[in-house]
């Protein structure tokens, strides 16, 4: 399949309109059946299955997960932890040093004074204090922590 715009001119690189529609539908509900997906985007079930498999292989769709309520699973405290190296000449291997810590939900490399920002979920302020101690010990960094008071929305998918 070739990507082309009107008049046979090449389209802007990215997703074809049908792939965008499939991704948007799966983004809204990753548990949609192929039958439901096919009806929503106007393709056969086999064509949708093939496109979804290709989107997964290309890495456009990186996986499917359940969105959990931190409060109900015993992790009501969410915080953002900014990391600044104690030694600016030290190797930039913080993600590898920290990937084994389960409380860290996301790790973002950022521009600015800090090197990384971590999104963490813990059961209590005491749990946060313990996590900060472990992060500082393992990564040899200083931290600045922002505790989340509420989350009006989270994890929204990008508009395609």
Write up what this structure looks like:
- It contains five helices and four strands, in the order H-H-H-E-H-E-E-H-E.
- The chain is α+β, with helices and mostly antiparallel strands.
- It has two domains: 42 residues, Winged helix-like DNA-binding domain superfamily/Winged helix DNA-binding domain (Arc Repressor Mutant, subunit A); 79 residues, 2-Layer Sandwich (Alpha-Beta Plaits), CATH 3.30.70.
- A hairpin with a 6-residue loop joins strand 2 and strand 3.
- Helix 2 packs across helix 3.
- The chain is elongated, with a radius of gyration of 21 Å.
Please tag this protein with its features:
elongated; disordered N terminus; Arc Repressor Mutant, subunit A; alpha+beta; 160 residues; Alpha-Beta Plaits
Write a compact overview of the structure shown.
The protein has 160 residues and is α+β, with helices and mostly antiparallel strands. It has five helices and four strands, in the order αααβαββαβ.
Question: Strands, helices and their partners?
Answer:
Blueprint: H1 17-28, H2 34-41, H3 45-58, E1 77-85, H4 94-98, E2 104-109, E3 116-122, H5 125-139, E4 141-147
Helix pairs in contact: 2-3
Classify the beta-strand content into a percent band: 15-25%
- Main sheet summary: 4 strands, antiparallel
Write down the Rg. Answer: 21 Å
The arrangement of helices and strands along the chain is HHHEHEEHE
Mean pLDDT: 90
Shape: elongated
CATH homology superfamily of the largest domain? Lrp/AsnC effector binding domain/regulation of amino acid metabolism (RAM) domain
Q: How many alpha or pi helices?
A: 5
InterPro entries: ArsR-like_HTH (IPR011991), AsnC-type_HTH_dom (IPR000485), Dimeric_a/b-barrel (IPR011008), Tscrpt_reg_AsnC-like (IPR019888), Tscrpt_reg_AsnC/Lrp_C (IPR019887), Tscrpt_reg_HTH_AsnC-type_CS (IPR019885), WH-like_DNA-bd_sf (IPR036388), WH_DNA-bd_sf (IPR036390)
Protein name: Lrp/AsnC family leucine-responsive transcriptional regulator
Keywords: DNA-binding, Transcription, Transcription regulation
GO molecular function: sequence-specific DNA binding
């Amino acid at each position: 399949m070739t990507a082309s715009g009107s008049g046979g001119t090449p389209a802007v690189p990215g997703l074809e309109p049908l792939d965008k529609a499939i991704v948007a539908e799966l983004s809204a509900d990753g548990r949609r059946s192929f039958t439901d997906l096919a009806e929503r985007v106007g393709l056969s079930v086999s064509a949708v299955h093939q496109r979804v498999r290709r989107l997964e292989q290309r890495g456009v769709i990186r996986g499917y997960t359940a969105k959990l309520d931190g409060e109900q699973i015993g992790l009501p405290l969410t915080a953002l932890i900014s990391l600044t190296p104690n030694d600016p000449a030290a190797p930039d291997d913080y993600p590898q040093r920290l990937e084994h810590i389960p409380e860290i939900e996301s790790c973002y490399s950022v521009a600015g004074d800090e090197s990384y920002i971590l999104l963490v979920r813990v059961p209590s302020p005491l749990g946060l204090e313990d996590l900060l101690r472990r992060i500082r010990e393992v990564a040899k960094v200083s931290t600045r922590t922002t505790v989340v008071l509420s989350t009006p929305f989270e994890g929204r998918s990008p508009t395609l």
